[in-house]
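User: Can you predict the 3D structure for this chain?
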Amino acid sequence: MANIPSLTDAQLEINDRVATLKLNRDDVRNALTGTALVDDIVNIVEWINRDSTISCLIITGNGKAFCSGGNIKEMRDDKGTFGGTPAQIAEKYRRGIQRLSLAMHSIEIPVIAAVNGPAIGAGFDLACMCDIRLGCEDTLLGETFINLGIIPGDGGAWFLQRLVGYQKAAELTFSGRLVKAEEAMQLGLLLELVPPNQLLTKAKELAQSFADKAPQALRMTKRLMKSAQRLELADFLDLCSSYQASCHHTQDYRRALNGFLDKTAVEFKGD
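Assistant: Here is the predicted structure, written as structure tokens:
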């Protein structure tokens, strides 16, 4: 395992190839601006992409909120990201919250959001950047930028419509309304609802079911899922051929075949 980056406002736990990242600024409802959370998440993603010993990431919040997005008091006072000339603010977005969007889109392993409470604005978008979202009765979602007279500057409009389709994403984004857990399930924003005290346990169980698979094939599959969103079919099939040829030459492929034929458990090693 490569050196784990030091974190300022988040906590990291690692167990059986599963990393759990807990946003740890409950004092500001885990806001992404005015804290080190963007840097912490970006650093963890970059580390994971270098370290083949991690196969799944869970993101959740410590405290009552998953993530409140931007710090509205800083917006009011024109501080931090929100202060300066239009050119200066645009550059702060590029070097700030948009680094998070690019990092989350580039992560090579499955990511599960255990949405333990409100996920608002950029916090909702962070959840949408994950592959899977689990919720509970405390989950509350909202693409609320329009309520503050701004737009989803973190790319939320790009992520949301890929989850729920253009029409529903448009309604949620144009209205800025809040979505409770039951409706979020109906919209397909959440995979499953579980009791609040079982949320993280369920996320870890699901993560482990991914992490138990062949590590190289899992990462290639994640890349394929992302590539399928932008490639034409012929180009995508070429990529599939290359990845598949690589898989056929791994030892984990041989272990899986032998285990299937012999009806024995397989322990994948990532080689």
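The mean pLDDT is 96. The two ends are 15 Å apart (CA to CA).
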